[in-house]
Amino acid sequence: MYSLRALRRFVQDSIGHIFQGNRYYYAWVGFLLVLIAAGAAAYLGQLRDGLIVTHMRDQVSWGFYIGNFTFLVGVAAAAIMLVIPAYVYDWEPIREITILGEVLAISALVMCLCFVMVDIGRPDRFWHIMPLVGRLNFPTSLLAWDVIVLNIYLLLNWFVVTYLLYCGYTKRHYVKAIVLPLVLFSIPMAVSIHSVTAFLFNGLAARPFWNSAILAPRFLASAFCSGPAILLVLLQILRKVTNLKIKDEAIFKVAELMAYTMGFTLFLTMAEVFKEFYSNTEHLVYTKYLWFGLQGHHTLVPYAWGSVACGLAAFLLLLIPRTRHNWVGLNIGCVLIYASVYIEKGMGLIIPGLTPDPLGEIYVYTPSATEILVAAGIFGIGFLVFTLMLKVAVPIMLGELTVTSGQPAPEADPDHLALAKH
Amino acid sequence: MVIPSFRPPSRRALALLCGWFLVGLAGVRAQDIQVPPPPFTEGLFPCTACHDGVNQKVNRTRRELTGMHSDIILKHGPDSRWCLDCHDPLNRDRLHLASGEQIEFTVSYELCGQCHGEKLRDWRAGVHGKRTGSWSGQKQYLLCVNCHNPHTPHFQALKPMPPPLRPEAIRKGGAL
Amino acid sequence: MKKIATLKSRRRFLGGAAATMAGAMATLTGCGRNEVEAFLQHNFRELSKDELRQVIARLEQDAKRKYGKEVRIGTEPAQQGVIFGYALDLSRCIGCRRCVKACVKENNPSRDPQIEWIRVLQLNKDEGVDISHADPYYNPEEVPQEGHFYMPVQCHQCRNAPCTKVCPVGATWQEPDGIVVVDYNWCIGCRYCMAACPYGARRFNWGEPAIPAAEVNPVTHYLGNRPRPKGVVEKCTFCIQRTRKGLYPACVEICPTGSRKFGNLADPKSEIRYILENKRVFIFKEDLNTKPKFFYFYGV
Fold first, then answer.
1. Are B131 and C258 a contacting pair at CB < 8 A?
2. Is residue B24, in this structure, part of any structural domain at all?
3. What is the C-alpha to C-alpha distance for residues A81 and A231, in angstroms, rounded to an integer?
4. Residue B71 included in any domain
5. Which of A230, B106, C194, C296 sits a CA distance of 20 to 30 A from C42?
6. B91 and B134 share a domain?
7. What is the ipTM of this complex?
8. How many secondary structure helices (H) and strands (E) does chain A include?
9. Residue B167 in contact with partner chain A when CB distance is under 8 A
10. B94/B131 same-domain check
11. Which residues of C are less than 8 Å from A132 in CB distance?
């Protein structure tokens, strides 16, 4: 059934397929490689000189890298948002795109790991964090939890995707008893990766802005509305450039769910803001710095209001059926939601949590050129992983790439779309 | 958090008792804490070289000095304070307490402690004044006058050492 | 039933394998044996006496090469029955910053990029300890300035430390004598501890630390003031290299107004206990329940 030969062919054909494409494909991959090269060059400078090439300092010791990491954990978690309706509510139109969500999760997780690697001061000591070989401070340290759950989630997604694609490639039905439990397990895992990431912030009493009970719900809500945004845009592209059939229904349903979660996000944001301003304690300084500026420093203010404006606009666009079912409205809504949550996680979470610092000092942090280049390089890596995986996954899903393709074969069996059915 | 506590007599307290006993015997206080020698101005001690009671008669009138020692600014407490409130009129190589008892300059803290009793108590316990030595063994003590000029005891302001660099100024390849 | 290998024996095996690998790597990569051993070194708390001796020898060699000086790296353990405590008299501190500079002289922090473990805040008398009005960059002609008081802040060596809780690799922990230490060779530089510290006490080596060779203090402790590498966290250690030998920290000794007090909290006759029992003492950010061993008091 799973012969070693078939497996070898699967790997070979997959790799082979990566190198087959039209000029748009090569242009896109070329662009990503340029980004990655630029990021790598910048990172080499950082390795040589230390993190001093960033604009992080003792007063604001986490910045752009961790902001991106936090956002991307949310994207990875949200990919599973598609799983819930597909499998839990047994909603057929979404099933076929679940695998794409998982590919997105894998790409996002790869980026998360990259962002952590570039942020730590001693990447050569990365092995210290491995259990048994190093010394993992589990269960006391939330970062230790994060290492564990992120890696489990990555392995889970990677295994499910590989297994499903391999089954599609070998024209077998996947074994439900293997896939369904894992896929269902990925739902609490998705919730856990973002909750653990939220806990690592909100467990810190030293940072009153983060030390809020609703931080984890906020993370989940904003993740669930932003993660699928990328996917929706992607699905429309895939529909155009490949033979992949995705029902409008599926896209609209996901967009509707995004609207509700964005509404909830806005509500939670409002709840947070109310508590700070109404109680009016000393801890108001952080919220004030974000929304109104402090002592003449107003760097974050446009981002804070911009994020809310984008979020509100997206909420309305995706809530109202007329605009949701309009392709322009839908796509603008996706872009706005992505922008809103991206800004909120970076500028709206990390920086105000650390400004003013524990001794009251305001250091205005903005990312340096190195940080931006390295981040661009990592996004290049993520998009490249995403592209290459899709380059292999989509043909397999369409039945164009199988163990027998390239050989004279009978007419394709309609049942081969094993992924679209039970 | 402030809990007044009764502490059993320490060795220091016992030493003090012995010292007071000796006072009764010798009429002079024993030095119970190891301190550096008094920081006399060069060439001034012994004072009895001039104040021998023969060539210089004792003048107990409260006045501002115009001849010798006019360089000493006296600003210690009320305006009525003057030299012989602390310096013994009959033996200028000694100070005197309110009771009239003479003490050596080496135990001048006894005199300070008459008014600044709390400070003296803290000082003996090791919690007043510059702290050097060993926390687990012998502490190094200073005389009150090693830090506080007895004539103008108010602490002089100091020039602060430079502030830290601002984070914006910390750059690769040297500070701005 | 065969006894299951303990974690330590598993590490010994891995260590042996690692040592063999080290030799191979040294030959293959052309890296010195020192670099490979440095890469594979384990957490301080897991080293055997022999391994520790080797590590110290290697580090002293590295320091000699870098600074041209004989640097001694001690490993004095905590004394029995000792828990260090610190008290700072806010009514006496005049903000002269001599403590800051004495600490720098004693503890070998990087001069460029600048690291200072103690930060003195200038506060307003009519607002009290209100850090939203704190200024660490004051630089008048003389101190103290009218209407202000001064509050130096450094690591509080908390009994309920938030920083040791969050370290993912266990590179920072509290020693038996109460000092919170960092193993500079185990720290991965993630800076989670810096986010967790409510007193802003921790510093990071953002760049390669630079100390003029003449200013290097050669009397050091592995967990304290030995010269640090790039990319790791550091902070005040109550001058572990001095206090474990019975001396006072450098900041205590230099203070010209006698505002700093130090001693053994476990000794009922110590100065620090005298202060806690007789003076008006308060704890900075007490509501965070860090239970620090650094107290502020008003002595006058």
1. yes
2. no
3. 11
4. yes
5. C194
6. no
7. 0.91
8. 15, 0
9. yes
10. no
11. 7, 10, 14
Contact between A72 and A111 under an 8 Å Cβ cutoff? The reply is yes
Token duo for residue A38: 């630029």
Chain C CB contacts of B155 under 8 Å are: 94, 257
In chain B, how many domains are there? 2
Looking at the domain assignment, is residue B168 inside a domain? no
pLDDT tens by residue, A355-378: 999 999 999 999 999 999 999 999
> Domain locations in chain A?
10-421
CB B35 within 8 A of CB B106: yes
- What are the pLDDT tens digits along chain B (176 aa)? 445 555 666 676 666 666 555 555 444 677 788 899 999 888 888 988 888 878 878 888 888 888 888 888 899 988 888 899 999 999 999 999 999 999 999 999 999 999 999 999 999 999 999 989 999 988 899 999 999 999 999 888 999 999 999 999 998 765 54
Assigned architecture for domain A10-421 = Up-down Bundle (1.20)
How far does the CA of residue C73 sit from the closest CA of chain A (Å)?
Answer: 22
Report the distance separating Cα A132 and Cα B162, nearest Å.
47
- A331: phi then psi, degrees, rounded to nearest 5: -70, -40
Q: pTM of this prediction? A: 0.88
Q: Are strands C280-282 and C119-124 parallel, antiparallel or unpaired?
A: unpaired
Residue with tokens 């896929």: A183
C229/B contact by beta carbon, under 8 A: no
B102, B123: one domain: no
Residue A65, judged by CB atoms within 10 A of its CB (0-12, 13-18, 19+), counts as: buried
* Stretch A29-40: mean pLDDT: 97
**Together in a domain, B86 and B49:** yes
What is the rounded CA–CA span in Å between residue A398 and residue A169?
10
Q: Looking at the structure, tell me whether residues B120 and B101 fall in a common domain.
A: no
Measured between beta carbons, the chain A residues lying within 8 angstroms of C39 are 124
Q: What is the pLDDT of residues A90-124, one digit of tens each?
A: 666 666 677 888 899 999 999 999 999 999 999 99
Q: For residue B172, give the nearest of A53, A58, A60 by CB distance.
A: A53
The reply to whether B95 and B130 lie within a common domain is no
Q: Are A52 and B171 within 8 A, CB to CB?
A: yes
Q: Is A57 close to B167, i.e. CB distance below 8 A?
A: yes
Residue A325: per-residue pLDDT: 94
Phi–psi pair at B7, nearest 5 degrees: -105, 135
pLDDT of the residue at A409: 42
Classify residue C238 as left (phi > 0), alpha (psi -120 to 50) or beta: left
Domain that holds residue B92: 44-53+64-107
